[in-house]
Amino acid sequence: MSSQIQSPIKRITVPDIRARKGGEPIVVLTAYDAPTAALMDAHCDILLVGDSVGMAVHGLTSTVGVTLEMMILHGQAVMRGAKRALVVIDMPFGSYEAGLETAYANAVRVLKETGAQAVKVESGPTAPATIDYLVKRGVPVMGHVGLLPQSINIDGSFKAKGREEGERARILQSARDTADAGAFAVVIEGVAEGLAREITEAIDKPTIGIGASAACDGQVLVSSDMLGLFDWTPKFVRKYADLRGVIDQAVATYADDVRARRFPAEVETYFSKKPVST
User: Fold this and answer.
1) Distance of CA 210 to CAs 10, 18, 21, 40, Å?
2) In CATH, what number is assigned to the domain containing residue 167?
């Protein structure tokens, strides 16, 4: 391979993540654009281009309305900013459920058009067969069990899962099936600590928790939530910043300066060049 096309920074790979099972916790955040991805890149092992972009960026009420084109667009942006982290892109609702060949075609399109390293699918009843089909054809897949945001129209709300024994057993089996099908890691969302611990101990692939306790092999949060861009966040989110307040104050100050003609000042203004004397 020509040295001209090799990146000077070694990017984290799928085998690197798979090898982290039971080791140093894996750090994951969602990313939707190039400048934010560039800031997160040095600190995160995985950047997830989540279909949460529909709610966090586009103002949708759920992830159901997110399209493949939206995921590709945001995936391309994140890949321009990230040089080190493994980049995983969500397969949106409707892009992988219709059949194995459709799922493969859409997944290949995502990887080819973005340059990302893997895709993520929510692990419903048909997911293990899909994961197996994709992995055997060269598409790395991250699974997702527990609370499944793409199933909002069936569940009716975003609520914790696995509190009843029957549902607990079903989610545990789904995680096992997902790992056995070839997923290199499994996101566990919105389940009790005991179930998250049981899943993590039961499968040989790293688990990434979101609202699933510290028992998992790593953690992921929606970046907009942990950065404080919204008034309300789920119980499991810790706000590490108050960007909503920072942005509000900055915009208010800008507006005051414009109305008072304090902005732009002389230092921010271009002037005609003085004629050169002869």
Assistant:
1) 27, 18, 17, 18
2) 3.20.20.60
- Give the pLDDT mean for 150-162: 65
Write out the E strands in 108-225. Answer: 118-120, 141-146, 185-189, 207-210, 218-221
- Which structural domain, as residue segments, surrounds residue 231? 7-242
Q: Are the C-beta atoms of residues 18 and 185 closer than 8 Å to each other?
A: yes
How many structural domains are present in the chain? Answer: 1
Q: Which residues are catalytic?
A: 189
**What is the bridge-based pairing of β-strands 185-189 and 207-210?**
parallel
First-residue to last-residue Cα distance in the chain: 59
pTM: 0.93
Q: Helix-strand-coil percent breakdown of the chain, rounded to 5?
A: 40, 15, 45
Q: Is 220 helix (H, G, I), strand (E, B) or coil?
A: strand
Across 51-83, b (16+ Cβ under 10 Å) vs e yields bbbbbbeeebebbbebebebbbebbbbbbebbe
- Is residue 120 a part of any domain in this protein? yes
Confidence of residue 269 (pLDDT cuts 50, 70, 90): very high
Q: 266 in a domain, yes or no?
A: no
The pLDDT tens digits for 194-222 are 999 999 999 999 999 999 999 999 999 99
Question: Any residues with CB less than 8 A from the CB of 91 and at least 6 apart, and which?
Answer: 68, 71, 103, 106, 107, 110, 119, 120, 121
